[in-house]
Task: inverse folding
C-alpha cells in the first residue's frame, strides 16, 4: 500500500486513461474525495462513489472516467502531482499557477478547503498546489 494516497490515485488515473478503462478503484480519504468532487464539477470524470468491500471493513473510492466524442477521447488528458510529501509547493494568491493559458487548472489546498486555482484566485487565497489537470 502506498503512503502517498494522492500520488497513488493520480498514477491509477493515468494508467486507466492510457488503456481506456472505464472504472478506477483506489483507496479513499477525505482529500481524495475532495479531489474527485473537483474533477466531477469541472467535467473531467463522469462520477464517483465510495464503496465498502463485502469481505473487509475498508472503503474504496470508485471513479467512473468520462470519454467524449465518436473516437472516445478521454476528458482527462493529463494529471500531474506537484506538491509531494518530500517537497511541498506553496503559492500565495499572487503566484497561483495558470495552466495552459487558463484551459487547465491546478487543484489547491487552501485554508478554506480544496478548490481549483480559478476559484482560489477569485477568493484571493493561496495554498499548497496539489496537482495540475487538463
Result:
Amino acid at each position: 500500500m502506498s503512503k502517498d494516497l494522492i500520488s497513488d490515485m493520480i498514477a491509477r488515473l493515468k494508467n486507466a486513461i492510457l488503456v481506456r478503462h472505464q472504472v478506477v478503484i483506489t483507496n479513499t480519504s477525505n482529500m481524495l474525495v475532495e479531489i474527485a468532487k473537483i474533477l466531477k464539477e469541472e467535467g473531467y470524470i463522469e462520477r464517483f462513489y465510495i464503496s465498502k468491500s463485502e469481505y473487509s471493513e475498508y472503503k474504496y473510492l470508485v471513479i467512473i472516467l468520462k470519454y467524449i466524442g465518436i473516437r472516445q477521447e478521454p476528458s482527462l488528458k493529463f494529471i500531474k502531482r506537484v506538491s509531494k510529501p518530500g517537497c511541498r509547493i506553496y503559492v500565495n494568491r499572487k503566484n497561483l499557477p495558470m495552466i495552459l493559458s487558463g484551459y487547465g487548472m491546478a487543484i489547491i489546498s487552501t485554508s478554506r478547503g480544496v478548490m481549483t486555482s480559478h476559484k482560489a484566485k477569485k477568493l484571493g487565497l493561496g495554498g499548497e498546489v496539489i496537482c495540475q489537470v487538463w
User: Anything to note?
Assistant: Helices lie at 5-18, 30-41, 117-123.
